[in-house]
Amino acid sequence: MKVPYAASMAALTGLSLLVPSAYGMEFFNCGDNARFLVSLMMGFGSRDPTTIQRDTDPPYPEGQIYGARRFEMPIQSNTMRSFMVQSISGSQPIRLYEKVSSGWKFCPIEDYDI
Fold first, then answer.
1. Cβ pair 89, 100 in contact under 8 A
2. I need a labelling partner for 16 at 20 to 30 A (CA). Which of 35, 36, 44, 79 fits?
């Protein structure tokens, strides 16, 4: 039995949000119920030079920034929040930030083992 590709990908994406809490996956934790699987964000990171660093973006003094991709998403009570994924050189190839009133807040990676 064949399942349409788009439908199966949507289902797997939805399930991937449930599975990690049971099996100990890594998340970017931005606080207030904004958690993103590191593995999903890896695919969202950009190495497109047209998305390169803006003056207001956080610097990366340890290496090079290859690109940045921004997105908005409703989290908790449908409040729209803004995020940015930076593609960087280094052992962890991406970083995630949330836009807050004072600038960009770094979202650390946490392991949710049970």
1. no
2. 79
